[in-house]
Design brief:
The chain is α/β, with parallel strands linked by helices. Helices cover 44% and strands 15% of the residues.
Protein backbone atom coordinates (compact mmCIF):
# COMPACT_ATOMS: atom_id res chain seq x y z
CA UNK A 1 0.00 0.00 0.00
CA UNK A 2 1.36 3.39 -0.95
CA UNK A 3 0.20 6.52 0.86
CA UNK A 4 0.34 10.14 -0.14
CA UNK A 5 -0.14 13.04 2.24
CA UNK A 6 -1.27 16.55 1.48
CA UNK A 7 0.88 19.65 1.25
CA UNK A 8 -1.39 22.39 -0.06
CA UNK A 9 -4.32 24.33 1.26
CA UNK A 10 -8.07 23.97 1.14
CA UNK A 11 -8.25 27.56 0.00
CA UNK A 12 -6.37 26.72 -3.18
CA UNK A 13 -8.84 23.97 -4.10
CA UNK A 14 -11.81 26.21 -3.44
CA UNK A 15 -10.26 28.88 -5.64
CA UNK A 16 -9.74 26.30 -8.38
CA UNK A 17 -13.34 25.14 -8.15
CA UNK A 18 -14.66 28.70 -8.47
CA UNK A 19 -12.34 29.28 -11.42
CA UNK A 20 -13.68 26.16 -13.13
CA UNK A 21 -17.25 27.28 -12.48
CA UNK A 22 -16.45 30.63 -14.00
CA UNK A 23 -15.19 28.92 -17.16
CA UNK A 24 -18.31 26.76 -17.35
CA UNK A 25 -20.47 29.84 -16.91
CA UNK A 26 -18.68 31.65 -19.70
CA UNK A 27 -19.29 28.70 -22.02
CA UNK A 28 -23.01 28.53 -21.31
CA UNK A 29 -23.36 32.28 -21.67
CA UNK A 30 -21.83 32.44 -25.12
CA UNK A 31 -24.69 30.57 -26.77
CA UNK A 32 -24.41 28.80 -30.10
CA UNK A 33 -21.55 30.94 -31.37
CA UNK A 34 -19.20 30.22 -28.43
CA UNK A 35 -17.37 27.44 -30.26
CA UNK A 36 -17.03 29.28 -33.56
CA UNK A 37 -13.58 30.12 -34.85
CA UNK A 38 -14.03 33.83 -35.39
CA UNK A 39 -11.18 35.23 -37.44
CA UNK A 40 -10.51 38.89 -36.88
CA UNK A 41 -7.63 41.27 -36.52
CA UNK A 42 -6.16 41.14 -33.03
CA UNK A 43 -5.83 44.19 -30.84
CA UNK A 44 -2.46 45.02 -32.31
CA UNK A 45 -3.91 44.88 -35.79
CA UNK A 46 -1.87 41.87 -36.92
CA UNK A 47 -2.46 38.16 -36.97
CA UNK A 48 -5.72 36.32 -36.59
CA UNK A 49 -7.80 35.48 -33.55
CA UNK A 50 -9.26 32.00 -33.12
CA UNK A 51 -11.69 30.60 -30.60
CA UNK A 52 -11.96 26.85 -30.09
CA UNK A 53 -13.98 24.72 -27.70
CA UNK A 54 -12.55 21.71 -25.88
CA UNK A 55 -15.24 19.35 -24.60
CA UNK A 56 -13.60 17.34 -21.86
CA UNK A 57 -14.43 15.21 -18.85
CA UNK A 58 -14.74 16.15 -15.18
CA UNK A 59 -11.30 15.85 -13.55
CA UNK A 60 -9.37 17.69 -16.29
CA UNK A 61 -10.60 21.13 -15.23
CA UNK A 62 -7.42 22.20 -13.47
CA UNK A 63 -5.13 20.56 -16.03
CA UNK A 64 -6.67 22.37 -18.99
CA UNK A 65 -6.90 25.69 -17.16
CA UNK A 66 -3.09 25.56 -16.92
CA UNK A 67 -2.50 23.98 -20.32
CA UNK A 68 -4.73 26.42 -22.20
CA UNK A 69 -2.83 29.39 -20.83
CA UNK A 70 0.52 27.86 -21.80
CA UNK A 71 -0.71 26.81 -25.24
CA UNK A 72 -2.14 30.24 -26.06
CA UNK A 73 1.24 31.79 -25.26
CA UNK A 74 3.07 29.18 -27.36
CA UNK A 75 0.69 29.56 -30.30
CA UNK A 76 1.02 33.33 -30.33
CA UNK A 77 4.82 33.14 -30.21
CA UNK A 78 4.95 30.56 -33.02
CA UNK A 79 2.33 32.00 -35.39
CA UNK A 80 1.63 35.59 -34.38
CA UNK A 81 -2.03 34.57 -34.02
CA UNK A 82 -4.06 34.47 -30.84
CA UNK A 83 -6.35 31.73 -29.60
CA UNK A 84 -8.99 31.54 -26.89
CA UNK A 85 -9.98 28.11 -25.60
CA UNK A 86 -13.44 27.58 -24.16
CA UNK A 87 -13.76 24.60 -21.81
CA UNK A 88 -16.68 22.30 -21.13
CA UNK A 89 -16.58 19.56 -18.47
CA UNK A 90 -18.86 16.77 -17.29
CA UNK A 91 -19.14 13.00 -17.19
CA UNK A 92 -17.30 11.66 -20.24
CA UNK A 93 -20.23 9.71 -21.69
CA UNK A 94 -22.57 12.65 -21.25
CA UNK A 95 -20.02 14.97 -22.87
CA UNK A 96 -19.76 12.70 -25.91
CA UNK A 97 -23.54 12.68 -26.24
CA UNK A 98 -23.62 16.48 -26.01
CA UNK A 99 -21.31 16.72 -29.02
CA UNK A 100 -23.39 14.22 -30.96
CA UNK A 101 -26.46 16.29 -30.12
CA UNK A 102 -24.94 19.53 -31.38
CA UNK A 103 -22.39 21.00 -28.94
CA UNK A 104 -19.98 22.85 -31.23
CA UNK A 105 -16.74 21.23 -30.02
CA UNK A 106 -13.60 21.70 -32.09
CA UNK A 107 -11.76 19.06 -30.05
CA UNK A 108 -12.77 16.41 -27.53
CA UNK A 109 -10.50 15.20 -24.73
CA UNK A 110 -12.51 12.41 -23.14
CA UNK A 111 -11.95 9.67 -20.59
CA UNK A 112 -11.94 6.72 -22.96
CA UNK A 113 -11.73 5.95 -26.64
CA UNK A 114 -15.24 4.52 -26.82
CA UNK A 115 -16.76 7.91 -26.03
CA UNK A 116 -14.91 9.43 -28.97
CA UNK A 117 -16.00 6.51 -31.14
CA UNK A 118 -19.60 7.54 -30.44
CA UNK A 119 -18.84 10.97 -31.92
CA UNK A 120 -17.10 9.33 -34.88
CA UNK A 121 -20.12 7.09 -35.52
CA UNK A 122 -22.29 10.21 -35.66
CA UNK A 123 -20.20 11.34 -38.63
CA UNK A 124 -18.43 14.18 -36.82
CA UNK A 125 -14.92 12.67 -36.62
CA UNK A 126 -13.07 11.06 -39.49
CA UNK A 127 -12.13 7.40 -39.31
CA UNK A 128 -8.58 6.75 -38.18
CA UNK A 129 -8.57 9.37 -35.42
CA UNK A 130 -6.96 6.92 -32.98
CA UNK A 131 -3.78 6.97 -35.07
CA UNK A 132 -3.71 10.74 -35.68
CA UNK A 133 -1.63 11.40 -32.57
CA UNK A 134 0.99 9.34 -30.78
CA UNK A 135 0.26 6.49 -28.38
CA UNK A 136 -3.27 5.85 -29.62
CA UNK A 137 -4.04 9.57 -29.29
CA UNK A 138 -3.45 9.37 -25.54
CA UNK A 139 -0.99 12.13 -24.54
CA UNK A 140 -1.34 11.22 -20.86
CA UNK A 141 -2.54 8.25 -18.84
CA UNK A 142 -3.83 7.62 -15.36
CA UNK A 143 -4.82 4.68 -13.20
CA UNK A 144 -7.46 3.72 -10.65
CA UNK A 145 -6.75 3.89 -6.93
CA UNK A 146 -8.63 4.09 -3.63
CA UNK A 147 -8.96 7.32 -1.67
CA UNK A 148 -9.47 6.81 2.07
CA UNK A 149 -9.60 9.07 5.09
CA UNK A 150 -6.44 9.79 7.08
CA UNK A 151 -5.21 6.80 9.05
CA UNK A 152 -7.22 4.45 6.82
CA UNK A 153 -9.64 3.65 9.69
CA UNK A 154 -11.26 0.72 7.84
CA UNK A 155 -7.85 -0.79 6.93
CA UNK A 156 -8.66 -0.92 3.24
CA UNK A 157 -5.85 -2.53 1.26
CA UNK A 158 -7.32 -4.16 -1.86
CA UNK A 159 -10.47 -4.80 -3.87
CA UNK A 160 -11.67 -7.51 -1.43
CA UNK A 161 -12.09 -4.88 1.26
CA UNK A 162 -14.61 -3.02 -0.90
CA UNK A 163 -16.98 -6.00 -0.57
CA UNK A 164 -17.04 -5.93 3.24
CA UNK A 165 -20.33 -5.20 4.99
CA UNK A 166 -18.72 -2.50 7.13
CA UNK A 167 -17.32 -0.51 4.17
CA UNK A 168 -19.33 2.14 2.30
CA UNK A 169 -18.05 2.85 -1.22
CA UNK A 170 -18.34 5.98 -3.36
CA UNK A 171 -18.16 5.22 -7.09
CA UNK A 172 -19.49 7.05 -10.19
CA UNK A 173 -22.00 5.57 -12.64
CA UNK A 174 -20.57 3.55 -15.57
CA UNK A 175 -23.54 4.64 -17.66
CA UNK A 176 -22.31 8.24 -17.69
CA UNK A 177 -18.75 8.28 -16.34
CA UNK A 178 -15.61 7.15 -18.15
CA UNK A 179 -13.79 6.81 -14.84
CA UNK A 180 -16.46 4.42 -13.63
CA UNK A 181 -15.90 2.20 -16.66
CA UNK A 182 -12.16 2.05 -15.95
CA UNK A 183 -12.98 1.32 -12.28
CA UNK A 184 -15.23 -1.58 -13.21
CA UNK A 185 -12.70 -3.13 -15.57
CA UNK A 186 -9.92 -2.93 -12.97
CA UNK A 187 -12.14 -4.67 -10.42
CA UNK A 188 -13.18 -7.29 -12.99
CA UNK A 189 -9.54 -8.03 -13.84
CA UNK A 190 -8.77 -8.43 -10.14
CA UNK A 191 -11.68 -10.87 -9.80
CA UNK A 192 -10.51 -12.74 -12.90
CA UNK A 193 -7.14 -13.30 -11.23
CA UNK A 194 -8.69 -14.13 -7.85
CA UNK A 195 -11.14 -16.70 -9.17
CA UNK A 196 -9.12 -18.12 -12.06
CA UNK A 197 -11.58 -16.96 -14.70
CA UNK A 198 -14.68 -18.46 -13.06
CA UNK A 199 -17.21 -15.97 -14.38
CA UNK A 200 -19.97 -16.90 -11.95
CA UNK A 201 -17.72 -16.13 -9.00
CA UNK A 202 -16.44 -13.00 -10.70
CA UNK A 203 -19.95 -11.67 -11.18
CA UNK A 204 -20.82 -12.51 -7.59
CA UNK A 205 -17.74 -10.59 -6.42
CA UNK A 206 -18.62 -7.52 -8.52
CA UNK A 207 -22.24 -7.69 -7.41
CA UNK A 208 -21.13 -7.65 -3.78
CA UNK A 209 -18.75 -4.74 -4.42
CA UNK A 210 -21.43 -2.64 -6.11
CA UNK A 211 -23.93 -3.46 -3.37
CA UNK A 212 -21.59 -1.50 -1.09
CA UNK A 213 -21.79 1.63 -3.29
CA UNK A 214 -23.93 4.11 -1.36
CA UNK A 215 -23.76 7.01 -3.85
CA UNK A 216 -23.29 6.68 -7.60
CA UNK A 217 -22.71 10.14 -9.08
CA UNK A 218 -22.84 10.87 -12.80
CA UNK A 219 -19.14 11.77 -12.98
CA UNK A 220 -15.84 11.41 -11.18
CA UNK A 221 -15.79 15.00 -9.89
CA UNK A 222 -19.25 14.50 -8.44
CA UNK A 223 -17.96 11.48 -6.53
CA UNK A 224 -15.13 13.59 -5.14
CA UNK A 225 -17.66 16.16 -3.93
CA UNK A 226 -19.71 13.41 -2.29
CA UNK A 227 -16.70 11.86 -0.55
CA UNK A 228 -14.72 14.96 0.34
CA UNK A 229 -17.16 17.84 0.77
CA UNK A 230 -20.21 15.87 1.89
CA UNK A 231 -18.22 13.41 4.00
CA UNK A 232 -19.99 10.29 2.76
CA UNK A 233 -18.41 6.87 2.44
CA UNK A 234 -15.29 5.14 3.73
CA UNK A 235 -13.50 4.83 0.39
CA UNK A 236 -13.78 6.36 -3.07
CA UNK A 237 -12.70 4.44 -6.16
CA UNK A 238 -10.91 7.21 -7.99
CA UNK A 239 -8.83 8.41 -10.87
CA UNK A 240 -5.25 8.50 -9.61
CA UNK A 241 -4.94 12.16 -10.61
CA UNK A 242 -8.15 13.10 -8.79
CA UNK A 243 -6.93 11.33 -5.65
CA UNK A 244 -3.55 13.07 -5.83
CA UNK A 245 -5.26 16.44 -6.17
CA UNK A 246 -7.43 15.73 -3.14
CA UNK A 247 -4.58 14.76 -0.83
CA UNK A 248 -2.57 17.74 -2.05
CA UNK A 249 -5.37 20.15 -1.26
CA UNK A 250 -6.60 18.70 2.04
CA UNK A 251 -3.50 18.42 4.22
CA UNK A 252 -3.46 15.36 6.45
CA UNK A 253 -7.08 14.41 5.76
CA UNK A 254 -6.80 11.73 3.07
CA UNK A 255 -4.51 8.95 1.86
CA UNK A 256 -4.19 7.00 -1.37
CA UNK A 257 -4.23 3.21 -1.33
CA UNK A 258 -2.87 1.45 -4.40
CA UNK A 259 -4.65 -1.87 -5.03
CA UNK A 260 -2.60 -4.90 -6.01
CA UNK A 261 -4.12 -4.81 -9.51
CA UNK A 262 -5.36 -1.76 -11.37
CA UNK A 263 -5.65 -0.61 -14.97
CA UNK A 264 -3.71 1.69 -17.28
CA UNK A 265 -6.39 4.25 -18.10
CA UNK A 266 -5.83 5.99 -21.43
CA UNK A 267 -7.91 9.15 -21.90
CA UNK A 268 -8.13 9.97 -25.60
CA UNK A 269 -8.15 13.15 -27.68
CA UNK A 270 -9.47 13.93 -31.16
CA UNK A 271 -10.38 16.76 -33.52
CA UNK A 272 -14.11 17.01 -34.20
CA UNK A 273 -13.49 17.30 -37.93
CA UNK A 274 -16.91 18.39 -39.11
CA UNK A 275 -17.03 21.27 -36.62
CA UNK A 276 -13.38 22.24 -37.10
CA UNK A 277 -13.82 22.33 -40.88
CA UNK A 278 -16.97 24.41 -40.56
CA UNK A 279 -15.36 26.77 -38.05
CA UNK A 280 -12.05 27.12 -39.89
CA UNK A 281 -10.14 25.79 -36.89
CA UNK A 282 -8.67 22.55 -38.24
CA UNK A 283 -5.06 23.82 -38.11
CA UNK A 284 -5.23 25.37 -34.65
CA UNK A 285 -7.14 22.37 -33.28
CA UNK A 286 -4.45 20.02 -34.59
CA UNK A 287 -1.71 22.13 -33.04
CA UNK A 288 -3.65 22.31 -29.77
CA UNK A 289 -3.71 18.53 -29.44
CA UNK A 290 -0.22 17.97 -30.86
CA UNK A 291 1.33 20.33 -28.33
CA UNK A 292 0.09 18.11 -25.50
CA UNK A 293 3.08 15.89 -26.37
CA UNK A 294 5.62 18.70 -26.04
CA UNK A 295 8.06 18.70 -23.11
CA UNK A 296 6.47 21.79 -21.57
CA UNK A 297 2.98 20.34 -21.78
CA UNK A 298 4.10 16.94 -20.50
CA UNK A 299 5.47 18.62 -17.39
CA UNK A 300 2.16 20.44 -16.89
CA UNK A 301 0.47 17.06 -17.21
CA UNK A 302 2.75 15.57 -14.54
CA UNK A 303 2.23 18.54 -12.25
CA UNK A 304 -1.53 18.00 -12.29
CA UNK A 305 -1.31 14.32 -11.42
CA UNK A 306 -1.63 12.67 -14.82
CA UNK A 307 1.07 10.29 -16.01
CA UNK A 308 3.05 11.86 -18.88
CA UNK A 309 3.29 9.67 -21.98
CA UNK A 310 6.95 10.71 -22.30
CA UNK A 311 8.75 8.05 -20.25
CA UNK A 312 11.67 10.32 -19.33
CA UNK A 313 9.34 13.03 -18.03
CA UNK A 314 7.21 10.43 -16.24
CA UNK A 315 10.31 9.49 -14.23
CA UNK A 316 10.69 13.13 -13.16
CA UNK A 317 7.29 12.83 -11.46
CA UNK A 318 7.73 9.27 -10.18
CA UNK A 319 7.23 10.41 -6.58
CA UNK A 320 3.59 11.20 -7.43
CA UNK A 321 2.71 7.76 -8.78
CA UNK A 322 2.90 4.15 -7.70
CA UNK A 323 4.76 2.82 -10.74
CA UNK A 324 4.95 -0.67 -9.23
CA UNK A 325 1.23 -1.43 -9.43
CA UNK A 326 0.32 -4.33 -11.69
CA UNK A 327 -1.72 -2.75 -14.49
CA UNK A 328 -3.94 -4.44 -17.02
CA UNK A 329 -4.96 -2.44 -20.09
CA UNK A 330 -7.91 -2.21 -22.43
CA UNK A 331 -6.41 -4.76 -24.81
CA UNK A 332 -6.91 -7.38 -22.08
CA UNK A 333 -10.63 -6.89 -22.70
CA UNK A 334 -10.46 -6.99 -26.50
CA UNK A 335 -10.38 -3.21 -26.97
CA UNK A 336 -12.98 -0.61 -26.06
CA UNK A 337 -15.65 -1.58 -28.57
CA UNK A 338 -15.73 -5.15 -27.27
CA UNK A 339 -15.43 -4.10 -23.63
CA UNK A 340 -18.24 -1.56 -23.84
CA UNK A 341 -20.59 -3.96 -25.62
CA UNK A 342 -19.94 -6.71 -23.10
CA UNK A 343 -19.93 -4.77 -19.85
CA UNK A 344 -21.68 -1.40 -20.18
CA UNK A 345 -24.22 -1.53 -23.00
CA UNK A 346 -27.84 -2.02 -22.00
CA UNK A 347 -28.21 -5.59 -20.77
CA UNK A 348 -24.46 -6.03 -20.32
CA UNK A 349 -22.60 -7.43 -17.34
CA UNK A 350 -22.93 -4.24 -15.30
CA UNK A 351 -26.71 -4.25 -15.67
CA UNK A 352 -26.70 -7.92 -14.78
CA UNK A 353 -24.82 -7.53 -11.50
CA UNK A 354 -26.07 -4.13 -10.31
CA UNK A 355 -29.49 -3.67 -8.77
CA UNK A 356 -30.37 0.03 -8.67
Amino acid sequence: MKKYFAKKSLAKLIAGIFAALAVASSLSGCGGNSAGAAEAADEAGSGKHYQITNVSYDPTRELYAAYNEAFAKHYNEETGNTVEIIQSHGGSGGQARSVVEGADADVVTLALAHDITLVEEAGLIKAGWLDEFDRDSSPYTSSIVFLVRAGNPKNIADWDDLTRDDVDVIHPDPKSSGAACWNFLAAWYYADNKFGGDEAQMKEFLAKLYSRVIVMDSGARGSTTTFVENGQGDVMVSWENEAISTVDNYPGEYEIVSPSISILAQPSVAIVDENADKNGTQEVAHEYLSWLYSEEAQRIIGKYGYRPSDEAILKEYADKFDLNMKLCNINDFGGWDAAYARFFADGGVFDEIYVR
